[in-house]
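Onboarding guide, step 5: your first structure request.
Type a short instruction followed by the sequence, for example:

Predict the 3D structure of this protein.
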Amino acid sequence: MSRRLVKKGFSSFLLMVMMAAAVLYPTSTGHAATINVTDNGSRIEVNTGAGLVYTVNKTNGDIISAKMNGTELNGSSKGSHISSGLGSANVTWNTSPSGSTLLITVSTSTLTHYYASRGGENIIYMATYVTAEPSVGELRYIFRGNGSVLTGVPANSNNRNNTGAIESEDVFGYANGQSTSKYYGNDQAKDLTIRGVTGIGVGVFMAYGDREKSSGGPFFRDIQFQSGGDTEVYNYMNSGHAQTENWRMGLHGPYALIFTTGATPSVPDFSWMSSLNLTGWVSSRGNVVLNGLSGMDTGYAYTVGFANSNAQYWVNASSSGAAAKYSMIPGTYTMTVYKGELAVYTESVNVTGGSTTTLNTRTINNDPSKASSIWRIGNWDGTPSEFLNGQTIPIRHPSDSRNPSWGPVSYATGSATNKFPAIQFRGQNSPTTVTFSLNSSQAASSHVLNIGITAAYNNGRPSVTINGQTLTNPAASSQPNSRSFTIGTYRGNNTTFSWNIPASYFVNGSNTVTITPISGSSDLGNWLSAGWVYDCVELLN
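The system replies with structure tokens like these:
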């Protein structure tokens, strides 16, 4: 056989392999493929060439159809949209000169929402620019999925077959005493990467993207899913749900909806969107490098957060406290070091575009666990997770039949910490009684009693007696004006109530403390009653 024939045969074989690879792996070079757009004056139909075909209503910017390999994944009764739908908007579109990328712009006087796609990818990239909070009081994108197709949904937010609402119109009960809600089973902001819903041969996933313009910090939770008639997938960028800081304006995102044949995809690369000239996109950015932390508690993970009125960021610290955060919008930030979820160090840090701010090792100077105590119930970490029912707050209503009884509890110091209630409800489990022993030397001295909380509801704060002696009632703490621990979060504003107790209130031997919530407001029920979430209770030496 001649060399020419061998070469020709090899070339034919190579061409066949390349063609097969193009069929098997259509997204490997998908962004170079042409994207097909049809505009009939009222609707924009987008065919990415890889299986996804979606349609945008030109009147209001809603997605009214999203088909994956011919299967309709958008619900039939409502469109998918920003906020609760814009009602009306100016909708325009353009493609790149090569025809491989598409940008749809949906704009009103205070909001601009972007849909972007690349040929060969089953992804709808998005970003939302706002100059004012939407009239519904929260900024969110809702994919309203086809509930008869997308049946593989998170259990905690699946409200199908409930027996009715047990709180407001958004927490539902069942004949077995269990509960579900859109508020349950949600990730903390620091863990938001990608989650979704599935059906037979299909899946819709939200890649949550950059949270720099959201509000609430690294431990904030908000709605991600709800299943009833539709299967809903959310990206909440801000809301009034136990919100601890003001909303941030500007460009939220980018984020994305990803359509698959059921498998969970990887988080996509958003960097290509820098060429789209989106309003509010910031290209010049800076970095912060922290060389380490001293005074860490080896039993806890540490998070380093940065926040100002314009942006927020966070990063996990290493075992030595080293941390580096890249690609931050220039400005002056409050850097906060969290032990667990409790702030134990803060300082001001400047970030300059195109440069790196390097910080030498910092010493943690505000960890209350370092104080010497006679007894301590729980530990100072900004969470109630070690307490009775503390780990179930994010996943179900406190009344859920799967929870052990909340009490009232009588607790002897030194007992198992998970016997002490995570939440003190005025209407359900009060008072909590704590018994402890003092020797003659301890009883002859004054001591400080501290009650640390992570959140409070209805102006709840502790009224305390020691051996029948009533301590001064404190003022209410500053907390978000919303429900909190019945809607899946124990995060509010960490507060410590503190009392200096004279020696005359103590006795040698057994002592008793009773803790009862007080409030200037009336309660709406046993669970919606004045109360708080515990972080730690201690008596100092």
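Each response can be followed by summary notes, for example: The radius of gyration is 28 Å.
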